[in-house]
């Protein structure tokens, strides 16, 4: 096993960071690594906003559900799916690019491009001994995030990324067994098989929580997921995305 | 610069592979690395299908726009955004998870989760000396891909990933200058500024193509992008995604 694979497999989210800020060089290396990811037809459909302003960070922490590590970290990035630059390109070149930019296909492309770039940033940061936490909570109140960061149409802030020197030890939650997630030649959608698989995995997850809490926490993956998914969160998203003129046709 | 960052920055897509197949151990390491990526609220919303069947690979190559490296490689993965497993969880636990599963928010989560996992797979593969190429062309004819791989509702094949031992030297296209993609504290949407930035980048891209083709190819990024975006491709995607019962509300 090489050191890159060791870094990848050692990943766990860090939610408490030392006060030490990242250097400009570290930030630039992380961004260059993000940019080095593959991009669909060279479209480069993302923008990364580094938030250094203390008040803005505090406000983002609040908007993300009062997560203190959004404000307290070595650096905070906001990863945005971005087709605004391409609208400008259409104007410069005098070509009608709008139907493309408003398509579900290009919405998907922009999300995928942004996520590929972000994960490169993460691996780069972790390889330098830094810790990271993705902040999906950034999507709780996107209208306010949009106003705070002056986000134009055709841009969607997808998630935050807190980076810094770890100030806690964290565990890694056991993932789905490999053969659940990886199949060969076809998707086996047999519900009985999936149910058996989930029972197997529930035992693993239950053990993990039991051991970690000295027997206090009783939880399974299906229990946790059904709780989470029976809550209807961020149901404004469709309207928000459409107001940003994406995913329209 | 550490070796992980070197690997990330050295990335270029490879479109010609040696015949040597990946070993089971290599495939499993790649999948475990994919699974090690962060996942939104532990949802793990993806399935990876490894395609080894020669006829299926040939068919996928054809469906992806006759790209031979879809059939000829060391291994071929199809990365699918997947909320089907979570539908089964709702049934097992007797909870109504359907509004969540059909929301734009969870559609986005499943795309992001899948892309984060895929990029981990890519970095792991490249760290082993393998080359990769993402196959967005897999989305050209998804109804046929769906039938071929028996994909159920709530699952969307997002892209393919060809992996193998490189049999060609390839160049890396120069990315947008860092300060275009990375901004601090707010999004600068000033169109004049963006236009100037694009002119600067156009020169870089034009030089790249000129040098690479002995002066034959004249192209700019804005030219290339406006050509690509003025074509309306995969406009069936919205309908396909909705038929898969995702991104509905």
Description of the molecule:
- The structure is a homodimer of 249-residue chains.
- Chain A folds into 2 domains: 3-171 and 235-243, NADH Oxidase, CATH 3.40.109; 178-218, no CATH class.
- Chain A has 12 helices and 5 strands.
- Chain A is of the alpha+beta class.
- The interface between A and B is large, with 121 and 121 residues.
- Strand 5 of chain A pairs parallel with strand 1 of chain B, so a sheet runs across the interface.
Layout of strands and helices, then pairs:
The structure is a homodimer of 249-residue chains.
Chain A: H1 3-9, H2 24-35, E1 46-51, H3 54-63, H4 68-71, E2 75-82, H5 84-93, H6 98-101, H7 104-127, E3 131-135, H8 142-149, E4 155-164, H9 178-181, E5 182-184, H10 191-212, H11 221-230, H12 237-243
Antiparallel strand pairs in A: 1-2, 2-4, 3-4
Helix pairs in contact in A: 2-7, 3-8
Domain Nitroreductase (chains A, B): 9-165
Organism (chains A, B): Bacillus smithii 7_3_47FAA
Family (chains A, B): Belongs to the flavin oxidoreductase frp family.
